[in-house]
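G., the chain you wanted modeled:
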Amino acid sequence: MIVLFALIGVLTGWLLNLVGDYLLRFASEPVQAVRGVQPPALLAILSSQRVSPNGAVRVASELITGVLFAALYLLHDVTAQTLLLMGMCALFVLIAIMDAKYRLVLNVLTYPGILLALIVNLMILHQPVLNIILGVAFAFGLFYITALVRPGGLGGGDVKLAAFIGAIFGFPHVLWALIAAAFVSAVIIAGMLISRRFTLQHSLPYAPFLCLGAIVILIYNSIMMV
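Predicted structure as tokens:
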């Protein structure tokens, strides 16, 4: 069964890349302009002379979803919680794909995500309202202020993605997701600096790190609840 779930994860990663290309039509910028955007500083660590940057993203996303789905099956077997976690991980992988390929975090993904997270947490799981509101406000406020202080470093999509993560975890758990994202980004940047594939003059898309941090805490929380 674990092999089956790994294969389902790989297929899901492949489909997510197709979905990401389709969702370009919902971008606020013209699709032709968006398709020309490539963030080589992030993709260079995955790509090579034989693999294009977008091909590297596709392969990486397929491997990541394959590993995630297999790990979730090992942790929780086939349950409603497993399927929910797989769906949430797939959504974060899709957002990461879009930002890695096109430097876009689309409203069509974050707005429904925030609404769904609020409905699930407040109306189904009955989480404390104050914790969820504080989680959204803290993450949104932190990234909004950072975007104002460092124009060009973070975009509006990153700010909305942070609010989405805050709506999922609430406060103070959102702190761990943001800390995990910061840690992963620091490790990757250090690796690229050492390999001389990155300089401090480059700009990196931050959504993939946010998504990875959220996935790590999602899985960690699911283990602690067993």
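The chain is about 75% helix and 0% strand.

Shout if anything looks off.
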